[in-house]
Amino acid sequence: MTSPTSDGHPHGDAGSTEAPLPVTGETLLPLDHGDLYVRQDGPAEAPALLLIHGSAATSRSWDALVPLLTSHRVIRVDIPGHGRSAEPSDGDYSLPVLGRRLATALDRLDVRHAVLVGHSSGGYAATALAEHRPDLVRALVLINTGPGMDAFIAPAEQSAIDPTRWPPGDEALRGFASSGFRAGFEIPQVLIDELRRMSFPAIAAAMRASTAYLSERAVPDRLKVLGKPVQVIFGDRDGRWRPSSAADYGAVPDAEIRMLAGAGHTPILEEPARTAALLLAFTAPHLRYDTSGTGRDERV
Questions:
Q1: Structural domain spans, the chain
Q2: Which pLDDT tens digit goes with each residue over 167-190?
Q3: What CATH topology corresponds to 25-283?
């Protein structure tokens, strides 16, 4: 792996009209209890988007969306125990701890403000980060993030798997992941390969952590006290969370709720262009390019 790189030229003076330096590459950030994998794309001085995937997935789940977002500084991570990030040495997968680890990662990357974008249970990590460090958060975008456990609808036979036979073959893995996509969508092989490389205990621990977080307090109740702009994007063919439950986010003052017709649980792969259009339209009023030469975004 390489560290984040640029074209090697120094930043211009304040007010410079030169194009911002690109941020490219991947790195492992050394954090307490395990390294965190980070991939960055887009201009160094652009407003930052932090993309957080859900459990049993990796940062590769954003592959189709990232090229449509690189007017921003796009930062994506593998959460602990997933993809290239280490399993936490303390065994703690809880959402408050994950939120603190992600906040530390933003500090290490010298990001002072970001829009947090969470897919599925990645929305819980985004919310937990905002609860811990509201100063870092401009706004939140939650994509097919179930608001509470009463909205969960995934069939038990699709979520059950024999841990003693992990990892199973491709067909079993596709069955395990099938409720995460609309009917008939071909799950990319790279995601199946990434899933196979994960340990079952890590996947199970992350899922238990999400259930515990939701059982303690529903997401809309958490968000409405934060006072942050919120956008909710939901596919109306979600097979994991009742699509009508998106309306529960109406409890959050001024929350923007957008339904994607024909999309399942993972519109970031199923409908990347439509998802990106909604996301970018929402973020535009909240962020602008930095012109101070510091490489940090400012509110309009």
A1: 25-283
A2: 999 999 999 999 999 999 999 999
A3: Rossmann fold (3.40.50)
HEC string of the chain equals CCCCECCCCCCCCCCCCCCCCECEEEEEECCCCCCEEEEEECECCCCEEEEECCCCCCHHHHCCCHHHCCCCEEEEECCCCCCCCCCCCCCCCCHHHHHHHHHHHHHHCCCCCEEEEEECCHHHHHHHHHHHCHHHEEEEEEECCCCCHHHECCCHHHHCCCHHHCCCCHHHHHHHHHHHCCCCCCCCHHHHHHHHHCCHHHHHHHHHHHHHHHHHCCHHHHHCCCCCCEEEEEECCCCCECHHHHHHHHHCCCCEEEEECCCCCCHHHHCHHHHHHHHHHHHCCCCECCCCCCCCCECC
What is this structure's pTM? 0.89
Q: Is the peptide bond before 167 cis (omega within 30 degrees of 0)?
A: yes
Largest CA distance in the chain: 60
| pLDDT, tens digit (0-9, with 9 covering 90-100), for 188-205 | 999 999 999 999 999 999
Distance CA(245)–CA(148), nearest Å, equals 8
Token readout for 70 is 């690189």
Q: How many CA atoms lie within 13 A of 291 on its CB side?
A: 7
How far is residue 286's CA from residue 141's CA, in Å, rounded to a whole number? 12
Pairing type for strands 25-29 and 256-260 reads: unpaired
Which tens digits make up the pLDDT trace of 13-39? 333 344 555 667 999 999 999 999 999
